[in-house]
Amino acid sequence: MQSYLINSNSDNKTSNYVNKLVAKLNLLTLEYDINKIDDVRKLEKFTRLKVTKPTGIIIRNIHKATKEALNALLKNLEEPQPDLYYILAVPDIRQIIPTILSRCQVITLYERPCNEEGDYQKSETFLSLPMSEKFLFIDKIKDRNEAINFLTSFIIGQHYLIMSKISHLKKTARILAIAEKTKQSLLLNGNITLHLTDFIINI
C-alpha cells in the first residue's frame, strides 16, 4: 500500500512517525495543503509528471479538506505512480470519510487511545435492535451535536469491522456510506429526525 493515514492527537508523534517513514522508504518529500478541490487539481499537475525517485506527498490536517476535495483525492490514492507515496495526517480518524480510510494504511499514535472497539460494540448493538427500538432510540435525539456524535461513533465502529476484517465488506461499506451521507446532511443543517429516520430505514 502506498497511502498512509497517521491518526494522532500529538503533532510531535506525527512528525516523528513521518520522519521514520520517510527514512524507511528513502523518500524525497513534498509538503502540501489541501482544503478545497482546486488544491487537488494543482496537486494533480505535479502527480502527472513522472517521478524518477521515491517521492512522498505529505498532507497534514487532511480533515480540513472539503468533502469534494477528498473525493477528488481518491483517484490519486487509488492509482499512484509506482514511486509515489501519500502520507496523510489527522488528529481524529472519525473526521475522515470512510472512502479515504479504506484506501490507506492507518497508523494510530494516540496518547489517549481512541476507543474504536467500544464504538464497534455500540454500533453492532444498535444494528441488532428491532426496528421499533431503533426508532425509540433516535426519537430521544433532539440535539444536532448529539446526532452527529452518534453517527460519528457509528461510522468509526463500522470502519473498525473493515480494518479488522471481521465483516462482510460490501454490506459494511454500504452501511458506512449511508451513515456518512446522513452525517453530512446533518452538518448542512438538515432536519435531525427526518435524516435519522431515513438512516434507520436504509440500513
CATH class of the largest domain: Alpha Beta
Tell me the count of domains.
2
Strand content: 5-15%
Q: How do the SSEs run, as a string of H and E?
A: EHEHEHEHEHHHHH
CATH superfamily of the largest domain: P-loop containing nucleotide triphosphate hydrolases
Mean pLDDT: 86
Instruction: Please tell me how large the radius of gyration is.
Output: 18 Å
For the biggest β-sheet, the strand order reads: 2-3-4-1-5
Give keywords:
203 residues; alpha/beta; Rossmann fold; 5-stranded parallel beta sheet; elongated
Describe this structure in words.
This protein folds into two domains: 3-108, Rossmann fold; 116-202. The chain has a five-stranded parallel sheet, with helices on one face. It contains nine helices and five strands; from the N terminus they run βαβαβαβαβααααα. The model has no long low-confidence stretch (mean pLDDT 86). The protein has helices at residues 11-25, 37-47, 67-78, 98-101, 116-128, 131-139, 144-164, 169-187, 192-202, and strands spanning 3-7, 28-31, 55-59, 84-90, 105-108. The longest helix has 21 residues, at 144-164. The protein is elongated, with a radius of gyration of 18 Å. α2 links the parallel β2 and β3. It has 203 residues and is an alpha/beta fold.
